[in-house]
Amino acid sequence: MLDSPEISDAEYDALVRELQALEGEHPEMGSPDSPTQRVGGAPREGFVQVRHSAPMLSLDNALNDGELRDFDRRVGELLGAADYAYVGELKLDGLSMAVRYRGGVMVQAVTRGDGETGEDVTANARTIRSLPLRVEGGPEEFEVRGEVIMPDRAFQKLNAERDAQGLARYANPRNSAAGSLRVLDPSVTAARQLDFYAYLLLVNGEPALDSHWESLNRLSVWGFRVNKARALCRGLDELAAFIQKWHEGREGLGYEIDGVVAKVNSISQQRQLGWTAKAPRWAIAYKYPPRQAETVLENIEVQVGRTGALTPVAHLRPVVVSGVTVSRASLHNEDEIGRLGLAIGDTVVIERSGDVIPKVVRVQSHGAERRMFEMPKQCPVCGEGVVRAEGEAASRCINPDCPARLKETVRFFASRGVMDIDGVGEVLVNQLVDQGLVRSVADLYGLTAAQLTPLERMGDKSAERILRGIEESRKKPLPRVLNGLGIPFVGERTAQLLAETFGSLDAIAGADDVTLQRADEVGEKVSQSIRAYFENPKNRALVERLRAEGLQFTHTVVKREGGPLAGMTVVVTGTLPSLSREEAKALIEQAGGKAGDSVSKKTSYVVAGEAAGSKLQKAQQLGIPVIDEAKLRKLAGA
């Protein structure tokens, strides 16, 4: 998923290096879209795309002292007998962004994107307090490039809030920063407390001053936040000392770094050294090794989540990894345990590579009395049966009244974006379930002030606020109710599509597989999950209780009669010449069509603009007609 990596940076770097070696041995197999030729991810759809004044290139990596010496040797050979110096800067673990100023006023902020084109995130960037909106003393027009990061304190606060709302935790500050900057609602960005650290000053796409060190100092004078942990290094020894200093001192920074960036200081020497197709020859990123430690896997415990998924969790002999005592790590599922060849009693290597939640990387040695793990056949909490559907990695408890499932279910049901019941977080839910006040989400609607006020950290005003939120939730539309039921594979998007297609919860509950698949993006796996949910007598009883409490079970579907695009689903991808994404969707709907978000066999047309991505590729694979903006206007009669 976007901004949600499935492997660590170290694993990714190793794979890229392996691919580089293979392409070196077999150049005929290289391609322009190889990861070795890419700078970053393609711009996310939903934002206006902007071309950079000069490419935002990535840097080559040095993973050890030998590779750093090789870099220095190449620099020396290319510069001949000339003296040179390096600027050492911390490699912040965030998202690169270019900010443009005109007349001293910030006018535009653009993410790195693919290095040539990025996303316009101006409205979101304006909410970053450490980014100046006005600068005195600069040229008429200039550009500042820097890194957007989420400080550790803000990241911990964000995850605490998500815990209270029953939402999944974010993996690390870097991806949280990227996701926070690239949301469509600036108020979300503002709440995330991001920081911007400047590292480059450009005028007309070129460095503005004669040296990089001078540029950093000038940016600081103008009011930009420039990292104080920087050094002008007269040679490789000073640079190596700077790298070692921050390898040892990184834990006290208050934000994540994954190495040091070294740049030749002189701009004229940078021009002399030049660039490769992917990276400058005058800069290198020295990446610190992942933070690892060895310890013993003492046990594997199984936790039960909201959808009944059983997650094995490693209980480790406590070990300190970069200043943090680690005693637990998620093992995800039994397939992952099998892939690792893991057994209780083994000595394992665990890693924290910027991640708050550590992971088991590999088995270092087998234990003398190792015990193999088996997923339980009964739920460890309620004792009812566990099933693992064909094609799924997760085993699940099928008892909807399981106490472990219940707590997660109630937290999710009440969370923001679902039924939005303010104040119903982890602490309160635990008390409500443990004291028997809530045995299903329907019991929330029978709570009274007399039941709430005696609870821990609860007063009259808090109880009133919670009861008011419960009452307001009765008015939430059907898609929210459907999402709140916690049907596996039915999230916010699918719930919306189901409600729009069928118009009522009863119609959805009574539909067979084939009928359910009439809804966009609902395939066999999702339809079977929906049908299985409503065939369970306990789930049907819950639905009836919610009906009796007055929740919304119908959804008004606006049907557009006629129009040149009636009955058609049209998907827009890429940047169109004159229409924004929202304008294009409005044009489709005004013509009686449906503006789709994903490409499937049910899609009638795909409208492709500049920098169209995977949706265009899927349309070509499925043989769906691909048109441009002019053709869309003609079809819509505009």
Notes on the structure:
- There is one protein chain.
- With 638 residues, the chain is α+β, with helices and mostly antiparallel strands.
- It folds into five domains: 38-287, D-amino Acid Aminotransferase, Chain A, domain 1; 294-397, OB fold (Dihydrolipoamide Acetyltransferase, E2P) (Beta Barrel), CATH 2.40.50; 403-473, 5' to 3' exonuclease, C-terminal subdomain (DNA polymerase, domain 1); 478-548, DNA polymerase, domain 1 (Orthogonal Bundle); 569-636, Rossmann fold, CATH 3.40.50.10190.
- Helix content is 34%, strand content 21%.
- It contains 23 helices and 23 strands.
- Strands 13, 14, 15, 16, 17, 18 and 19 form a seven-stranded antiparallel sheet that branches. Strands 2-12-11-3-10 form a five-stranded mixed sheet. A five-stranded antiparallel sheet has the order 5-4-7-8-9.
- Strand 8 (195-203) and strand 9 (206-207) form a beta hairpin.
- Helix 11 (403-414) packs across helix 12 and helix 15 (478-484) packs across helix 16 (492-502).
- The longest helix is centred in the N-terminal third of the chain and has 17 residues, at 9-25.
- It is globular.
